[in-house]
Amino acid sequence: MPKSNDLLEFRGLDNMSLIKKIKLAKVELDSLLFDKNLNKLKDTSVIAKKKGVIAHLSTVLRQKELVSELEAKIDKKQPAKKIEEVVKESVKEVEEKTMTKKPAKTSKITKKKGAK
Q: Is 114 left (phi over 0), alpha (psi -120 to 50) or beta?
């Protein structure tokens, strides 16, 4: 996993730099996996660490995208609303998109008295 200094550095980067770092890390991961398959890689824990870096970079990039979307909503659509209200509306929208239909309730079948 990246060190805390690296994490702060990741958050300070712009989106294009993050995308470049993600692509570079994926190429490095492919190289590590290739070396592992050829039995050239001594320490296989490097693969897990590289995957962690890729995951963290992707998370930071997604967070930046979500923040920019939220800021755009606040600035353009509803400048008079408070930030909390816009956040609540955005959360409701996401929940509605991700909710799946619940299955219909099924009635319990009970045996009639005296039936065998």
A: left
Which token pair is 28?
């490095």
Measured distance CA(77)–CA(73) in Å, rounded: 5
**For residue 105, what are its two tokens?**
């309730």
Q: Which of 22, 13, 28, 8 is nearest to 58 (CA)?
A: 22
Per-residue model confidence as pLDDT tens digits over 6-42:
777 888 888 899 999 999 999 999 999 999 999 998 9
How far does CA 13 lie from the centroid of its chain? 18
Q: What whole-number distance in Å separates Cα of residue 22 and Cα of residue 26?
A: 6
Residue with token string 């929208």: 93
Q: CA-to-CA distance for 54 and 33, rounded, in angstroms?
A: 14
